[in-house]
Write a structure and sequence with these properties.
Length: about 220
């Protein structure tokens, strides 16, 4: 993937990532996913973004150059993978929500043994990250560079779609699970009719008893 392709406004990049191939290189072999669903997050001007309130140790990768991974840990259980877009200092990125495993299916199944069908292996951002063995150690990985050293390949490679979906097959709508001022932005993009696309769910505030009752304690999307 040329870095210049990602050095553009995130809402332009996101729909054009549909059909792109993400390769995860592991010691056991490669796993490849064809992206079928993504979400755009605009950074400092986007209330739904992790970077809306500024830079932290957690979201620092979003402020770096385009073409790098931003991986975050959520709900104390799952990782999610994003591709950083736009110029340095403008923290925007694309959340990879779902895809079809097109290579290394047996490796994905080993990481997702409870998946009921092949379409479910990477059907949702946490499932996608799990199937690809993605965790915080890959935060900041350059996805536009194939070789990182003598005899070493990048653990993550992003390839442009060789057969992108036709424009009529691309749909857009509100982002999954985003509430508040960012809820209405139609920045979720998916390939219409693809079985690996995850179901849409509106934002549901997480509530706790006691002193925090009535406070939304759930994490925002990236």
């Amino acid at each position: 993937m040329p870095r210049a392709f990602l050095d553009r406004p995130v809402t332009e990049v996101a729909p054009e990532l549909l059909g792109a191939i993400l390769v995860r290189n592991t010691p056991d072999g490669a796993i490849a996913v064809r992206l079928t669903e993504v979400e755009a997050y605009g950074g400092g001007d986007d209330p739904g973004s992790h970077s809306y309130r500024g830079r932290t140790a957690r979201n620092a990768s979003m402020f770096g150059p385009p073409g790098h991974a931003y991986v975050y840990f959520t709900y104390g259980m799952w990782h999610c993978l994003n591709i950083v877009c736009g110029p340095v200092g403008h923290p925007s990125g694309v959340l990879l929500r779902a895809g079809e495993v097109v290579e290394g299916g047996e490796l994905a199944v080993a990481r997702r043994p409870r998946a009921r069908a092949h379409r479910d292996l990477a059907r949702g951002p946490a499932r996608l990250a799990t199937a690809l063995a993605v965790d915080r150690e890959l935060d900041g990985t350059d996805v536009c560079t194939m070789v990182t050293g003598p005899g070493e390949v990048s653990p993550l490679e992003l390839w442009r779609a060789s057969d992108p979906p036709c424009p009529d097959a691309v749909r857009r709508g509100p982002r999954t699970g985003v509430g508040g001022a960012g809820a209405a932005r139609p920045w979720r993009f998916w390939i219409d009719g693809d079985p690996s696309v995850s179901p849409y769910r509106a934002h549901q505030p997480r509530r706790r008893t006691g002193s925090s009752a009535g406070v939304d304690t759930g994490p925002r999307s990236p």
